[in-house]
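Try this one yourself first.
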């Protein structure tokens, strides 16, 4: 099912499949790190393939969005991604981190909205509600 998100991103945003997979893995990794394993497990159960993209992103060079997420997990919060923890930068921090996946700012913003609305449509309001409760700035991006 996650392949549908990749397909939508490539057709609607004009990005390559590898970039879409990297960005999706980064967004899913952010959700897992910030919302917790239990909540992410519900999301992954509702959207087959979601966990696989995180695994692929983690096997990358360690830079980009997954590097930023890893830095957040270890407490090494960089200025560009402080918003990923729900701080003042929220969307700006997420867009900055996604740019490391090969997206420009417009594509990153578009990808975040597309990805989150895809997750909401396919995982349901209850699961997305749990995610937004734990990562509040993501709620700003949902339609």
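Now uncover the answer:
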């Amino acid at each position: 099912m996650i392949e549908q998100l990749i397909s939508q991103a490539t057709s609607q945003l004009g990005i390559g499949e590898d970039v879409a997979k990297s960005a999706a893995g980064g967004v899913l990794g952010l959700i897992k790190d910030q919302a917790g394993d239990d909540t992410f497990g519900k999301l992954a159960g509702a959207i087959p393939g979601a966990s696989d993209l995180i695994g692929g992103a983690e096997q990358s060079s360690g830079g980009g969005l997954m590097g930023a997420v890893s830095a957040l997990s270890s407490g090494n919060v960089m200025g560009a991604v402080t918003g990923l923890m729900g701080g003042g930068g929220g969307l700006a921090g997420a867009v900055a981190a996604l740019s490391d996946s090969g997206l420009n700012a417009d594509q990153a913003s578009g990808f975040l909205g597309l990805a989150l609305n895809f997750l909401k449509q396919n995982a349901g309001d209850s699961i997305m509600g749990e995610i937004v409760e734990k990562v509040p700035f993501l709620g700003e991006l949902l339609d």
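Discussion: Helices lie at 2-13, 17-35, 37-46, 50-58, 64-73, 90-99, 105-123, 125-134. The chain has one domain: 2-135.
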